[in-house]
């Protein structure tokens, strides 16, 4: 009963007011706090972007120094985390591990669990920014049976992540600056994207007054799905399948399947609820992709060539043109991650570590909003009228 606006998938419902991220889907524009994504991706690093998203302004030199030092202070995780991790099967999906580990942080940091206390939220945000790369790298090392590499605070944020992922205690590891910059750009491009499914999940979860780590764990769980953050993994698997079945020659057959009304096959890394034009992040990602492939001597990488050919064909095909389906960020991010050496099942975990700051900024904004209430959607009830329970023999 009751008259409510019925809007499945929230196609036309604004769930909140926000001053963080602006998207113009028709023009293909993305701005964080007023700054175009192209300028941030070119002139700033990820931690500056985190400062911008969390506090509203890019840091000056002194603020940056202070912010970096606060983050690096928290890069280690409690040693108990290793025992928790050990409970997982070695072949566990990294996102299964991440939902567990991030949620478990709430059991360790009692000074940052009161979501209504701004100081608690702030230290939780710093802890999460600092520890997520450590957790992702630990999840990876665990699945391949290598020793964990402790964080190195003399390295940059992305340099340290590369070190924790790929260094071993046996030999010296030198961070490649091209890969470091590429990874940093992946982090910047994924840092926030207004009210997408995982961000809305974090807001809804946090609106009950749960602790910040639990709310972020809910975001990680939502991001996992192939329609959202899992698309980078799904896109690369799709490219691999097309490659196996004949490569570029096979694109026509694949597109036919996608267009078939009775098939559920989608062109992964294409389409977006908001962008009805080229996703600006996809352009930047394609640029980075070329740089990384060049650096690694992979200019002739068959999957990249396949992706470029697939994009070209799709952008000229009436099915995609009429539906305004363009490449999104995930079309190229998987190829970049793979060239860096990050294994496919870890792609979405990398997305999660980058998006975490956006989730925390959105949580802060929601709780600071005087109109904030627990999120409680209504429904249009379409079930049975009231009826009597019959005794078992009469059912
Ligand atoms: N391949 C083939 N057809 C598609 C695709 C696609 N990737 N995306 C949308 N369509 C079709 C869809 O079938 C529908 O056709 P019709 O009108 O004939 O029924 C039409 O285009 C409109 O699509 P929709 O499903 O109503 O659009 P949506 O806003 O509900 O879905 C989406 C958006 C991103 C879930 C969807 O485009 C999709 O599943 N894309 C593939 C997965 C993907 O790449 N996701 C990453 C999104 S960007 C990163 C992130 O933020 O997570």
TrEMBL record:
<dbReference type="GO" id="GO:0036440">
    <property type="term" value="F:citrate synthase activity"/>
</dbReference>
<feature type="active site">
    <location>
        <position position="330"/>
    </location>
</feature>
<feature type="active site">
    <location>
        <position position="272"/>
    </location>
</feature>
<comment type="pathway">
    <text>Carbohydrate metabolism; tricarboxylic acid cycle; isocitrate from oxaloacetate: step 1/2.</text>
</comment>
<comment type="similarity">
    <text>Belongs to the citrate synthase family.</text>
</comment>
<protein>
    <recommendedName>
        <fullName>Citrate synthase</fullName>
    </recommendedName>
</protein>
<dbReference type="GO" id="GO:0005737">
    <property type="term" value="C:cytoplasm"/>
</dbReference>
<keyword id="KW-0012">Acyltransferase</keyword>
<keyword id="KW-0808">Transferase</keyword>
<keyword id="KW-0816">Tricarboxylic acid cycle</keyword>
<dbReference type="InterPro" id="IPR019810">
    <property type="entry name" value="Citrate_synthase_AS"/>
</dbReference>
<dbReference type="Pfam" id="PF00285">
    <property type="entry name" value="Citrate_synt"/>
</dbReference>
<dbReference type="GO" id="GO:0006099">
    <property type="term" value="P:tricarboxylic acid cycle"/>
</dbReference>
<dbReference type="InterPro" id="IPR016142">
    <property type="entry name" value="Citrate_synth-like_lrg_a-sub"/>
</dbReference>
<dbReference type="InterPro" id="IPR002020">
    <property type="entry name" value="Citrate_synthase"/>
</dbReference>
<dbReference type="InterPro" id="IPR016143">
    <property type="entry name" value="Citrate_synth-like_sm_a-sub"/>
</dbReference>
<dbReference type="InterPro" id="IPR010953">
    <property type="entry name" value="Citrate_synthase_typ-I"/>
</dbReference>
<dbReference type="InterPro" id="IPR036969">
    <property type="entry name" value="Citrate_synthase_sf"/>
</dbReference>
<dbReference type="InterPro" id="IPR024176">
    <property type="entry name" value="Citrate_synthase_bac-typ"/>
</dbReference>
